[in-house]
Specification:
CATH architecture: 2-Layer Sandwich
Distance between the termini: 41 Å
Number of helices: 3
Strand content: 5-15%
Largest sheet: 5 strands, antiparallel
CATH topology: Herpes Virus-1
Protein name: UBP-type zinc finger domain-containing protein
Radius of gyration: 13 Å
Order of helices and strands: HEEHEEEH
Organism: Agromyces aurantiacus
Number of strands: 5
InterPro entries: Znf_RING/FYVE/PHD (IPR013083), Znf_UBP (IPR001607)
Length: 112
Amino acid sequence: MTDLAPPPSGTGCAECLANPDGWWFHLRRCVECGHIGCCDASIGRHARRHADETGHAVAASFEPGEEWFWDYEAETSARRVPLAPPRWRPEDQPAPGPEGRVPADWKSRLHQ
């Protein structure tokens, strides 16, 4: 039997959801603990912050259909590992999200 990485902490960026004005572009999932954070293009860059603060360097995309893994420490793609379900955020959940919090000018606010 293969060990699975922990399940995701939720369906959206934990830090963005905790902030009434928080929103994200795309989501990333920590392979070590399952923390869901927002991507580097998002204002908060919470997935990278999580990696920096915890030493959990590898994350997987949490976007439907994306299969890639990233090592924040090495700044390169990482080896895939088996993940506990669900593999991605719900497909009916909008990106950017969460619904109702994304500003109309969201594209101009993304980090390049």
